[in-house]
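RECORD TYPE: inverse folding
INPUT: structure tokens
STRUCTURE:
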């Protein structure tokens, strides 16, 4: 890795190795709950191709008891915090050393919104903006088709019925990754929230964000360097390289806080920025206490999850009813050696294990997202308020720039999966965040149920086939549309 500054991977055998680190962290997480699985992960010689089974074991090993799942989460977090490093003046140090680094001084600047707060939940969908009964009918259709879990339908319906919940001006919502397509920034500002917006110090990014949000009702507060220059040239904070400075700025914000993690980067940088956010999160909780900080995350649907029996039953029914079962499924499975159009679950599984991982995304992507799930599980076990929601497959820029993924998403509807547009997805996820903040999101009996609660998986959990076994066919069917 070329960058040698800020949050970095550790040296392993003379180089900063993402594979060795990922392998070791997964082994750390599994060691107490599944010693055999930990040993298997530690011995994996081809991590970039063989990582998937080990991430699946991280879910399976936590199923026997809530304590097992929480123990895996805590051990995984500890492994990352012990192994990842922060480069200070050319020397490696623990990530916590970032908080002692001087760094740039960031102050706050608030931009007053000029709009009127919206007090009715509306959802952009296929060129229209749905509200009231039309929005309820859309939710009903998604529920009928298995696009979202019943708990998600119930949660959004409660927000529709309680429009006063949209007013989050009684707290500060910190949006880390303010420019993220899947983030809630624009929805929160439409509803009049006070948002602390953090993203990279890039003038083009801030010029666009400020232009898009100045006519909304909310009041974004930005971290800025002192001076009188153009705001877009002074705004922003670099979590990876100036972690201490951004953390100090967040610590000055008036509470109560909702700390939202919406960061994303390509490749290994995704782990680095996710690790930076987790270090900030850990310090903020220690300094302010769980009562003053709620955490918010979006989980990717292209991961491994335990899913409710209802999703398994729906998938089993879909498998029995698919027209391809009459003439296409058997020859395809035979010709592919059983790799194509496999059942999504063993019928009757409770819970089922849904494996929707897209191998092209790689182990660093999965590790970054698993880090967020671990923090959510651990914080919830400590009594903190957590909103972690499985977001739907969405046509974000990071997805459509990959031609294979873009084609697969274009053909996904042939297999009962709905792929969302960013505006629909991020508004829906913002509504679920509002629900969780206003209701306190009481915990479920087991961490896997917390992760499944309110999931909007687009149909990946209820489709007839294991998603990866249909991905290639979906790409072929969607190739023309993607072009």
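DESIGNED SEQUENCE:
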């Amino acid at each position: 890795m070329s960058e040698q500054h800020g949050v970095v991977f550790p040296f392993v055998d003379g180089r900063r190795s993402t594979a060795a680190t990922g392998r070791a962290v997964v082994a750390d997480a599994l060691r107490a709950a599944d010693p055999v699985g930990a040993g298997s992960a530690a011995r994996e010689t081809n991590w970039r191709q063989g990582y998937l089974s080990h991430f699946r074991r991280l879910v399976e090993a936590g199923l026997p008891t809530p304590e097992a799942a929480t123990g895996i989460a805590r051990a995984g977090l500890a492994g990352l915090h012990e192994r990842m490093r922060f480069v200070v003046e050319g020397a490696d140090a623990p990530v916590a050393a970032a908080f002692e680094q001087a760094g740039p001084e960031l102050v706050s600047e608030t931009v007053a919104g000029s709009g009127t707060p919206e007090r009715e939940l509306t959802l952009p969908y296929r060129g229209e903006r749905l509200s009231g009964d039309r929005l309820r009918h859309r939710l009903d259709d998604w529920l009928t088709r298995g696009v979202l879990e019943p708990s998600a339908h119930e949660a959004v319906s409660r927000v529709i019925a309680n429009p006063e919940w949209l007013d989050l001006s009684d707290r500060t919502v910190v949006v880390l990754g303010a420019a993220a397509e899947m983030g809630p920034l624009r929805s929160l500002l439409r509803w009049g929230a006070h948002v602390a917006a953090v993203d990279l110090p890039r003038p083009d990014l801030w010029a666009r964000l400020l232009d898009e949000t100045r006519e909304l009702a909310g009041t974004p507060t930005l971290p800025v360097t002192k001076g009188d220059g153009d705001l877009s040239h002074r705004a922003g904070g670099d979590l990876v390289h100036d972690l201490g400075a951004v953390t100090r700025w967040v610590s000055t914000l008036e509470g109560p806080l909702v700390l939202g993690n919406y960061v994303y980067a390509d490749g290994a940088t995704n782990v680095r920025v996710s690790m930076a956010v987790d270090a900030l999160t850990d310090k903020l909780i220690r300094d302010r206490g769980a009562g003053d900080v709620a955490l918010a995350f979006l989980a990717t649907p292209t991961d491994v999850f335990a899913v409710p029996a209802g999703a398994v039953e729906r998938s089993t029914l879909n498998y029995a009813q698919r027209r391809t079962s009459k003439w296409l499924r058997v020859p395809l499975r035979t010709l592919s050696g059983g790799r194509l159009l496999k059942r999504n679950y063993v019928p009757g599984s409770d819970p089922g294990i849904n494996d929707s991982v897209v191998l092209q995304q790689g182990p660093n992507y999965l590790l970054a997202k698993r880090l967020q799930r671990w923090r959510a599980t651990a914080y919830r076990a400590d009594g903190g308020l957590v909103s972690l929601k499985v977001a739907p497959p969405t046509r974000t820029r990071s997805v459509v720039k990959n031609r294979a993924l873009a084609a697969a998403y274009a053909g996904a509807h042939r297999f009962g999966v709905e792929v969302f547009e960013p505006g629909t997805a991020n508004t829906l996820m913002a509504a679920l965040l509002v629900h969780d903040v206003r209701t306190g999101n009481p915990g479920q009996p087991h961490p896997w149920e917390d992760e499944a609660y309110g999931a909007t998986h687009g149909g990946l959990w209820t489709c007839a086939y294991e998603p990866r076994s249909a991905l290639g066919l979906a790409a072929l069917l969607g190739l023309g549309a993607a072009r």
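NOTES: The longest helix spans residues 268-288.
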